[in-house]
Amino acid sequence: MKIQKIVSELLKTSKNNIFSSRQSKYIASIKISDIWSILVLMGTFLLMIDAVYLGVVLRKDFMQFNTERMSSTLGFSFMIVSGALLLFKASFFIYTLFRYFKYKAVASVTDNELPTCTVIVPAYNEGKQVWDTLMSLAKSDYPEKKLQLLAIDDGSLDDTWEWMLDAKKQLGDRLEIYQQPKNKGKRHALYRGFNLGTGEIFVTVDSDSIVKPDTLRNLVSPFVTNEKCGAVAGNIRVLNKDKALLPKMLDVSFVLSFEFVRSAESSLNSVLCTPGALAAYRSEAVFACLPEWINQTFMGQPSDIGEDRAMTNMILKQGYHVLFQRNAYAYTNVPEKYRGLYKMFIRWGRSNVRENIEMSKYVFKNFRKGSKTGTRLLFLSQSLEIIMTYPFLIFMLFFVCTHPILFVSSTFLSILVLSTFPVIFYANRYETKESFWAYTYSILYTFGLFWITPYAIATANKRGWLTRDLPKTK
């Protein structure tokens, strides 16, 4: 058991087997966290059981409701559109599943084949976490002579710079550190790093992320085996998943998003977003779009969010392949509270709207050699989700007002059906007991975060990182 293991380790390190006050509080917090997790999961399963029961009891009401909708012109039209979209999404899921099985990660190449690599770590108010990030990168199984490590403090107001200085003291010439004169945003910190970098490949790593020793070599290997490769997305897992419930849920979500969705996208050479937490870019591809990237605007305002999605978009536009490396892991901290979570999702949502608009300008043109059908299907799938957001929001509100019990029961039943795949997928890849958080996350997203996409669309022109001023995870 996890608790017993932690208690045993603390016993070994405590003098005279007496716990310090801090250690006792830590153990107590773990116990409370585990109990709370069990209660939440039990509540989730009870809701799922109720959904099945209500689905059986109210099946005649469902049939009557659908009959009523079919009897009106508006309702019939909505049913036709909904049916067509459902058919498209079902077909697209089967297609994605097929492409997933076609995916295979590229094995690491030899030391002699590895290209020179510049790793850029932008940091803002990260505290000691940036030191942990730099230390994990320094332990990488990558030839030292081929690795340039840059850390850039983006005008932090805390002790981030002091931790960078300490890392520099320990790593010496292996690490270069720079300090922005003032906070200018992550994009500008990366821009400075790109201009300072000398590597054939640029790797960007968030300052709240930890990498495995083989991460870098696995991440850059596709550039050696595929000369058309312009960018590679890393495999992101959650670092702080044992500290709160939200990270547990997000870890399951991340596994589906990366190891399933991006695997399928990679088999089409068209990963749509290389994550800021871990991504690699061919330097030639970066410099070809760097002026456009740093000066990017949306509705007349400078773009200060979505720098990772924007860079990916511009590299795809050049005709390069963008791939995913499932064997290149980075573990990153995610929000532990609702406020931080919805702010992060709003930022992602706004970026998604902006970059889908940009992608529409080239995706149906002859932007690269070879088949482009898969890329276009990926674009259509994302675009349809954005386009249909408001019609389905209106229908949902109407459904809630007119048939609240039917809405609740049908929604929970849908969650049970649709979330079973992420549960099975995560259980197959990792731990079965952790996989059930997929159900809880779906409930949270459906009832607590459904407003994110409509709000992000309506405010897509707004600037701001949103989560930069939130307290850091301890």
Could you explain how this protein is built, in words?
- The protein is α/β, with parallel strands linked by helices.
- Among the domains are: 2-42; 103-382, Spore Coat Polysaccharide Biosynthesis Protein SpsA, Chain A (Alpha-Beta Complex), CATH 3.90.550.10.
- Helix content is 59%, strand content 12%.
- It contains 18 helices and 10 strands.
- It has helices spanning 2-13, 21-57, 59-71, 73-102, 129-138, 160-171, 186-196, 215-225, 245-267, 283-294, 307-317, 338-359, 373-387, 389-402, 404-429, 432-435, 437-448, 452-458, and strands at 117-123, 147-153, 175-179, 201-205, 209-211, 229-238, 278-282, 297-298, 301-302, 321-332.
- The strands form 2 sheets. An 8-stranded mixed sheet has the order 3-2-1-4-7-6-10-5, with helices on both faces.
- Helix 5 (129-138) links the parallel strand 1 (117-123) and strand 2 (147-153).
- Helix 2 packs across helix 15.
- It is globular, with a radius of gyration of 24 Å.
- It starts with a helix and ends in a 16-residue tail after the last helix.
- Residues 1-20 have low confidence and may be disordered.
